[in-house]
Design goal:
The complex is a heterodimer of chains A (504) and B (464).
Chain A (H helix, E strand, L loop, with lengths): L4 E5 L21 E3 L1 E4 L2 E4 L2 E4 L12 E8 L4 E9 L4 E9 L2 E10 L3 E7 L2 E12 L2 E6 L6 E3 L7 E2 L10 E7 L5 E11 L8 E8 L3 E6 L9 E8 L16 E8 L7 E4 L25 E5 L2 E5 L8 E3 L14 E2 L10 E5 L2 E6 L2 E6 L10 E5 L23 E4 L4 E4 L13 H5 L10 E5 L4 E5 L5 E5 L10 E5 L5 E7 L3 E6 L3
Antiparallel strand pairs in A: 3-4, 6-7, 7-8, 8-9, 10-11, 11-12, 11-13, 13-14, 15-18, 16-17, 16-19, 18-21, 19-20, 22-23, 23-24, 24-25, 26-27, 27-28, 28-29, 30-31, 32-33, 33-34, 34-35, 36-37
Chain B lengths: L2 E6 L3 H13 L34 E6 L14 E24 L6 E12 L7 E2 L5 E7 L3 E9 L3 E9 L13 E2 H7 L2 E11 L7 E22 L8 E3 L2 E3 L4 E5 L12 E6 L2 E3 L6 E4 L3 E5 L10 E6 L8 E5 L1 E3 L5 E6 L4 E6 L5 E6 L4 E3 L10 E22 L6 E9 L8 E8 L3 E5 L6 E15 L5
Classes of the chains: A mainly beta (504), B mainly beta (464).
Chain lengths: 504, 464
């Protein structure tokens, strides 16, 4: 072209913002917006469409948080709407564009919530951001608790529960067999979610060896979610000290009432040797679990952290029992550093717990959580409540590592934070965000589309296209902006990207 | 160049005040002491005024200037050089009567009527005034003995002028030889002008008497001239529209190109609310020297954001306000999802019965790296060729480092299928050039696979 040389650009690797724009490499952009990558081409990003029908009902507004909620039969969404005028947060359950249950939980001051699915149920913890000196921290709402929702549209109920009331009477039954001597008997209620209450209605009875035992005026629970009641007993007590809670109690085989209405159970025979399943640990459990700022699962245990009264607190449930958290042995001992525990994730059999500026690990040693050894992994890098990549089924790993949003950048974590970080190419952009707003960051990974979505503190999206590889140089970054601010994202049904937008 | 603005203040305020003065008809009453021994027992204070501004019997009027008309005229970066206050007094009349007995010996004494002082703004900043000329009437008497000084002050008119010339550094408070805007607002909101009657007496022995006066003051045409300049004037920059109704979220900052080369106001950054925006930020649609089109970041839509600009320069740093943008918000919130086949954004419309509305995907664009040769010579960019498909109109712009130099080049009509890579002519000269590519209308989309920018060395350097 008239001795003009051609400057050819046929490779496009996304945004580059490190230092002066003159430093932009040949195959990168010094500025961009609403562009996506496919192969070696760049094109206008995907458009967005409304996800709820405007004909079925008034679609939800003021969206603050969305989670994919995998039920037993389908995937669905849990959606938090927050009205700043009334300071009320409302969680709705959206099944499809035409069907929603609303509200399932309403709380004053709930600007965010933590969620983890377990056995088809949703465990929900309301939390918010609070000023802590010059910093902003996320903690569970004051005087609030962990809730469990069964997915049917009924209101979420408080998890765990109190022991059943007094009133049970024990008498000798028909001919049978028991071990002679003084025994303590009690009642443990069981909810639909499998939670076992502390033993209640404790009473003593001296067994007659040639007779079974019968139980009358068995109290019913005021909790309508109770579906079963179990009778528990001690072994023979030689010198009773008067403290009924001071003895080991065990579930009596076969002594279960499968409802919350029957008030008697007759003619139960057992020997002390049959008492194998311990129920004493139930005395130590929380009857109401304080709300925290994060929830996760580790080895079949529910992990909750950063309560309002103690933001260093991390609670761990019994294995397979998400609502059974011991007040004695279910606490992880974290070393305070002035910042709250903020997130946790399981990776390669280790539980990593973060603060905004540090990361520590705990490993299940087969014993109670309070005995798990703590290892400081990083004393400078951590993340906030939504800063670890999520997946469709809320697992925390997809390709053998975690992706974590730290103050330094978006990092690959495989037991340590890898350097350079994934966001190395857009370091100037990342460092321009206000650190006090990092609680707004959320990372969501769509494995099928090979996209990493980051909800930024300025409430637009940073999209990382990793079709060429999930590493610092191969990832292609693009900002995606919208007319309205984006607060949250979720991926449902394998690869369906959901955005939650606010008014302003 | 100094700019002079004439602020015409409503004179009814000052006339009303004058009426109050008259209506109260202050009887200046007896001297502070029954004996004419002045303020202290004993001999009169030599040269000391029997009455002074603000003392018993004097009226004091405080007039608060209404700056609501003033502040829009004077930008916050203005340098105030001179302020001139003029008051036209049309008719001052009344009587002053001084009866008493003065002891002996007594030096000459003077009765003075007139305007005495400016209590605020700081009278030490006054560089010239005709206060001394405001002795409207005076009389003298000599004692000892009885005296009776009656004075009928007939109608008179005077032009009172008070000048604050900061270029003279009055009172040493203006080393830069100008007053800044903040000081102007803080000190020139209210004017405390005291006028009344004073008797200045000499020394000597005790006496007694009464002093009374009543005056009638009419004034008109109070004006304040403020002479100022502004090193970075935002005059000429317009913002359209000044009111947005969502989902419309685009504004344009524009001004006419300069008449002379000296006027070279380029915007370096725009600040919307708390968000600073530069040329390569995602919110920008078009950035040239005198036209900037951008979207309002959604994080700044909650309160009507101030639009401020930072100019390229060395004397002044910081943001200068342009306007406060009025935003009529709309509830666009809700749950959305991506649709790879959609070329628009479909949003909820809740203005009435909920429905949906389609809007353009907010200005998709990209800016390539800077093309140059190894020696950073001055290059001529003659055009671009692009493998691109899509729909709508593809805009292109050549930009230099920091967007100091820009050229909008021809548009391409996009086609979904195309066997040609269209060439777009340009005539851009700079040491380095980058290509900015974008679409901006609803339903438009682009798919770019290859870009070729043609350039050659033109000169080895700029004139030294």
């Amino acid at each position: 072209m008239r001795d003009h040389e051609p400057g050819k650009i046929d490779t496009f690797n996304g945004l580059f913002q490190r230092g002066d724009p003159e430093n932009t490499p040949k195959d990168h952009f010094q500025g961009s917006n609403n562009i996506r990558h496919l192969g070696k081409s760049v094109m206008t990003r995907d458009g967005i469409i409304t996800s709820q029908s405007v004909n079925a009902f008034t679609p939800l507004t003021n969206i603050r948080r969305i989670y994919n909620y995998p039920m037993l039969t389908q995937n669905s969404l849990l959606v938090l709407s927050y009205n700043p005028l009334t300071n009320i947060g409302t969680i709705s359950h959206v099944l499809d564009e035409d069907t929603q249950y609303s509200p399932i939980l309403t709380k004053v001051g709930m600007t965010d919530f933590a969620f983890v699915p377990f056995g088809g149920r949703a465990y929900i913890s309301p939390f918010s951001s609070f000023a802590n000196g010059e910093e902003t921290v996320e903690k569970g709402l004051q005087s609030e608790f962990l809730y469990v929702y069964n997915g049917t549209g009924s209101t979420a109920r408080k998890a765990a529960g109190a022991s059943i009331g007094a009133g049970m009477v024990v008498a000798a039954g028909a001919a049978g067999h028991t071990d002679i001597g003084l025994h303590i008997y009690g009642v443990v209620s069981e909810t639909a979610s499998g939670y076992l209450s502390p033993p209640g209605s404790l009473t003593t009875f001296t067994n007659v060896p040639t007779n079974s035992v019968s139980f009358g005026t068995i109290p019913t629970s005021g909790d309508t979610n109770v579906t079963k009641r179990h009778i528990v007993a001690s072994k023979k007590i030689t010198n009773y000290n008067g403290n009924a809670e001071g003895y080991d109690l065990f579930f009596i085989p076969g002594a279960t009432i499968n409802d919350n209405t029957t008030v008697f159970l007759n003619n139960i025979s057992f020997y002390d040797a049959d008492l194998l399943e311990d129920a004493s640990y139930l005395f130590d459990n929380y009857t109401e679990i304080p709300a925290g700022a994060f929830l996760t699962l580790y080895h079949g245990r529910l992990v909750l952290g950063s309560t309002y009264d103690d933001f260093n607190l991390v609670l761990v449930s019994a294995q397979g029992e998400p609502e059974a958290i011991s007040q004695l042995t279910g606490i992880l001992a974290t070393q305070p550093n002035g910042f709250p525990v903020s997130n946790a994730a399981e990776f390669r059999d280790v539980l990593y717990v973060t603060r905004p500026n540090s990361t520590m690990s705990f490993t299940d040693n087969g014993d109670e959580p309070s005995t798990w050894p703590l290892i400081e992994v990083d004393s400078a890098l951590g993340t906030r409540p939504h800063g670890i990549s999520q997946f469709l089924n809320s697992a925390t790993q997809s390709v053998d590592f975690l992706i974590i949003a730290t103050y330094q950048g978006i990092s690959i974590f495989n037991g340590g934070y890898q350097s350079p970080e994934l966001s190395w190419k857009i370091e100037d952009l990342w460092k321009s965000y206000n650190r006090n707003d990092f609680g707004k960051i959320q990372i969501v990974n769509n494995t099928v589309k090979k996209r990493l979505y980051i909800v930024t503190p300025e409430r637009y999206l940073l999209v990382g296209f990793w079709q060429n590889g999930l590493d610092t140089m191969s990832i292609q970054w693009e900002p995606w902006t919208f007319v309205q601010p984006v607060n949250t994202m979720a991926v449902t049904n394998t690869d369906r990207d959901i955005l939650g937008c606010d008014i302003y | 160049m100094l700019t002079t603005r004439f602020l015409q203040i409503d004179f009814t305020d000052i006339v009303e005040a004058a009426s109050n003065f008259v209506n109260s008809g202050p009887n200046l009453g007896t001297p502070p002491n029954a004996n004419w021994s002045g303020l202290d027992a004993g001999p009169w204070v030599s040269g000391g005024p029997l009455f002074s501004a603000g003392s018993l019997g004097f009226a004091q009027y405080t007039w608060n200037a209404n700056h609501s008309t003033a502040t829009p005229l004077i930008p916050s970066t203005a340098r105030i050089h001179r302020i001139t206050i003029q008051m036209q007094w049309n008719g001052i009349s009344g009587t002053a009567d001084f009866d008493g007995t003065i002891g002996s010996p007594l030096a000459a004494s003077t009765t003075v009527f007139g305007l005495f002082s400016l209590a605020s703004p700081n009278p030490l900043w006054v560089t010239s005034s005709n206060f001394p000329d405001m002795i409207l009437d005076q009389d003298t008497f000599n004692g000892p003995g009885a005296f009776d000084i009656g004075s009928s002050i007939g109608p008179d008119s005077r032009l009172v002028e008070i000048v604050f010339d900061f270029e003279q550094n009055p009172n040493g408070d203006f080393p830069l030889l100008f007053m800044d805007y903040a000081t102007f607002i803080a000190n020139f909101t209210a004017y405390d002008i005291t006028y009344g009657v004073s008797a200045e007496v000499g020394t000597q022995s005790a006496g007694s008497g009464t002093y009374s006066a009543g005056i009638n003051v009419n004034s008109a045409n109070l004006s304040i001239d403020v002479e100022w300049d502004d090193p970075f004037s935002v005059t000429g920059w317009t913002v359209t529209p000044t009111t947005l109704t969502l989902p419309d979220n685009i504004i344009t900052l524009q001004r006419e190109p300069p008449v002379t080369e000296e006027d070279d106001e380029e915007i370096e950054k725009v600040k919307v609310g708390e968000k600073e925006i530069g040329p390569d930020d995602p919110w920008v649609i078009l950035w040239t020297k005198f036209t900037i089109t951008l979207k309002i970041p959604p994080d700044e839509m909650g309160d009507d954001p101030d639009i401020q600009v930072q100019f390229r320069g060395t004397e002044f740093s910081g943001f200068v306000p342009l306007i406060t943008l009025i935003i009529n918000t709309a509830d666009l919130s809700g749950i959305y999802e991506f649709d790879i086949d959609a070329h628009t954004d479909t949003l909820y419309d809740r203005t009435d019965t909920p429905t949906t509305q389609e809007v353009a995907i907010p200005a998709p664009f990209f800016v390539t790296h800077f093309l140059d040769n190894k020696e950073s010579d001055i290059l001529h960019f003659t055009g671009t060729r692009m493998r691109v498909t899509g729909s709508g109109t593809l805009h292109q712009q050549m930009v230099s480092l920091d967007y100091v130099n820009t050229e909008e080049i021809g548009d391409n009509t996009l086609r979904t299928t195309n066997n040609r890579s269209p060439f777009t002519l340009s005539n851009f000269v700079d040491q380095q050039g980058a290509l900015r590519v974008w679409t901006d209308a609803i339903g438009e989309f682009m798919n770019v696979s290859e870009i070729i920018v043609f350039f050659k060395k033109l000169f080895t350097g700029y004139p030294q």
